[in-house]
Records
---
Amino acid sequence: MPRSSREHPLGAHVEIGWRFARNAWGHGYATESARAALLHAIDDVGLRGIVSYTSADNARSQAVMARLDLVRDPARDFTTLSARGAPWRGLVWVVPTGWPRG
């Protein structure tokens, strides 16, 4: 999903993300659908510089990012306010050049 808001901590960027109902967790849907979306975005649309981010406490999404062979980019991590006004820390992962590996 392209984000063109200059107000976002990452500025304008292209993001890959996922959200599933709890009963869909643990079935590989996030990894499978994100891989297909990334292949389409890179091979068919020609997008580059795609990022993904999640909260520091979201181990499940971080595991998906690792399974996708995304690379952590701590220099781009950010803190912003959540919809409730509380600080929210985003950990940033990037799609590396030459993805997919193997």
Note: DSSP finds two helices and six strands in the chain.
---
Amino acid sequence: MMNRRELLRGAVGLAGALALGGLDAPRSQAAPGPHIPPVIDFDHNEAKLQPISKNLYLLAGLGGNILILVGDAKTTIVDSGVPTRSQDIAKAIASVSPHPVTTLINSHWHFDHTGGNAYMAGKGAHIIGHENVRRRLSRPEAIDLLHAKFPAQPKIAWPVETFTVAKTISAGSEEVRIRHVAPAHTDSDSIIHLPGANVVHAADLFFNGFYPFIDYNSGGWIGGMIAGLDHVLSLSDAHTKIIPGHGPLATRAEVQSARDMLATVRGRIQPMVSARKTLDQVIAAKPTRDLDAKWGGVVLSGDMFTQDVYEGLKRRLRA
């Protein structure tokens, strides 16, 4: 029988993903950083399609979680997965909708959510995203925690319609409200809310059941993640279906649990950052020790998450 971590890795698309040797590999084996992060290999994952309602579907396993909205004559999607799985994504969409993808909403700029942009745009999709999605896709970017660099994307992959605060569109019978939040996972994050269907796509503000990755190179930090989840909670009730950026479809209670965990971690690490403790000192204090059994080992170990939180707070508090 699969254990909890194996089940969550399957849900997030992490099966066979630890290509650099594991979640707790020592610093001596890699570039700077106390631990080697997992490299997510989406190329061998199975597409998992889950109905949410009669015209809404969740597509998982091919990058970040994709929301499919099937209208009377067109299809709208939220996020486009990784570039190597674009044809598989298109095939999965075609299995539930006879209509072309005419609108693609980007929740943020990361490769596992925008990697299929060029493919979808080449098939006629109109891409919508926050202005910082366009800005970051149009230039080289780096994610230090993952020791990763990303080249500028071709212009066809950029959002052609951008917004600063919020935008509302119609997708068939559904009203789709897109709302930018202050820097959280990145500085390009948006929440996608379908009030009529009582569905919220929280994207990478929410990793369901495990420590999230926070991109401090893109302005992300734990305080923004907490505020972002507070916004998700304000849009939801006990019956809301909440789509995380990674992990299984969630309830409001699961979002609340993740939010409370983040608040606990911030409360432990921020005083040490304010006291100008070094990264090694903070990691040695093991601030997530009692949380790791529940939240660690799927994407980030406790030490890796501590580093991630520390770096984001340091940039905020010592700027």
Note: Residues 137 and 228 are 22 Å apart (CA to CA).
---
Amino acid sequence: MESEFTGEVARVVRGLLAENNISGARLAEALNRAPSYVSERQTGQRAWTMTDLDVIADLLRVEPMILLDEVSRRARVARDARDAALLAKPRRRAEPPPPAATAPRRKRRTA
């Protein structure tokens, strides 16, 4: 994956395309690209270009800025949910250190 941001954009765009029944093959055709090009971007291995996002917005029948806003909103919601889940996990308590080893006591000689 290129970056966390690229991964978030890929995840959200993939979800929006699925919600609107737009297949990878249909998107590849609209982009005039190979299906592997689309696959690399849908999995976050490579970043979408602004031109790609413009074509995706057109397929979704929304303005490009609306698409970017939706990507940003959904990524923020997902990040907040992950952060909340991490904070909700109980932390494992550290085990107490083992008791210090003590040397056996010598018996005192009495004279």
Note: The helical segments are 4-19, 24-31, 35-42, 50-60, 64-88.
---
Amino acid sequence: RHIPYHLGTATLPPSEAKLLKEHLNMGTECVELYLDTDCKNIFHCIQKMRHLINSYHDLVPLILPHSSSNKFIVFFNSRRAAQEGAQFLCSHLPKDQIELVKRIHSGMSNEFHHDEVHALKIGNWLGTCATDAVGMGIDIPDIRIVVRYSVPTFLNSWYQ
């Protein structure tokens, strides 16, 4: 039986990583990803979720204190989660900001997708809740907060 593991570390030396993989019986089919985090303007942060994943309450301290001044994108693993996440955030925003948070996913038309990304780029929207489909190939230089809500389901999501 195949059981997937997700092991993240910033400080584990290679010798210890080897021992850990042996202890977990991780064979040669193990996939290792090394991400360069040596960018002066990017700060990675991993937080343990304190609430049920489908409650979206863990988004509150990440997005809401900064919502009036910083554009954001929250990436979700599914269309449904992106829609529910957007609804949750909107329900916690001041009334004048509710319409400034959108959702974008692959189930929407190319024209709608393009228009929504453009609106985010030019500042019409404060943020978006999206699937990985929106992140492929876009460049929005003034995005200040990017959240990956839960562990990505697919390997290509790690490279985003």
Note: The first strand starts at residue 71 and ends at 75.
